[in-house]
Write a structure and sequence with these properties.
By secondary structure, the chain is mostly helical. It has nine helices and no strands. GO terms for molecular function: DNA-binding transcription factor activity; transcription cis-regulatory region binding.
């Protein structure tokens, strides 16, 4: 029986993934202020030097964590053209995914909430929110252009409202999972946005 040896890149990727997962677990369990490179390395079972080699600083680690946890939260959207249909699928998928959110996505929401009072987090999450709003604005602009979205909808205002609602539902789910039934809620929230945006 032969075993395939992992390449150096595969070992680096595996270590980085384990370190990010350890960081997410620590954020969920103890909050960002308790997060240190030493604790991340201990949790992941690697040396402190490897954590420093991969990220260099706590700030860089938090930036990577924010990017990694937000990416791919709603699968299945990549092949869809921008517009109202994609926007509504994103809303539906996002609320549904909150019910299945793993430790990484819970860490993202906790870090996002803490960014309001943590100067080291604020720039990271301003950038993440702006990227999210930009995607939403693109969908609204495309819907305006093809006539599926009402002409009086302002893309930036709609994007701000959608991000606020989705993140707010996520935080409520973290605080009281039993009170926030995401499977039921996803349909009503999506329908609210359909009625708010769609041209009659």
């Amino acid at each position: 029986m032969t075993t395939t040896r992992r390449t150096q890149q595969q070992r680096r990727d595996q270590a980085a993934s384990a370190l990010l997962n350890a960081a997410a677990e620590l954020v969920v369990e103890q909050g960002v202020r308790a997060l240190t490179l030493a604790r991340v390395s201990e949790r992941a079972g690697y040396s402190r030097g490897l954590v420093t080699h991969h990220f260099g600083s706590k700030q860089a680690l938090l930036e990577r964590l924010a990017h990694a946890t937000q990416a791919g939260f709603v699968p299945g959207l990549d092949g869809l053209p921008p517009g109202l249909d994609r926007l509504l699928r994103l809303i539906d998928g996002y609320v549904g995914a909150l019910g299945r959110a793993g430790v990484a996505h819970r860490a993202f929401l906790l870090l996002w909430a803490e960014a309001a009072t943590a100067p080291e987090l604020a720039p990271i999450f301003r950038e993440r929110d702006e990227a999210f709003r930009a995607d939403l604005r693109e969908d609204v602009a495309a819907g305006l252009a093809d006539g599926t979205i009402r002409a009086d909808v302002v893309p930036d205002e709609a994007a701000i409202a959608i991000v606020g609602q989705l993140r707010g539902i996520g935080l409520q789910r973290l605080l009281d999972p039993e009170a926030v039934d995401t499977e039921r809620l996803r349909h009503s929230v999506t329908e609210q946005w359909r009625r708010a945006l769609a041209r009659a």
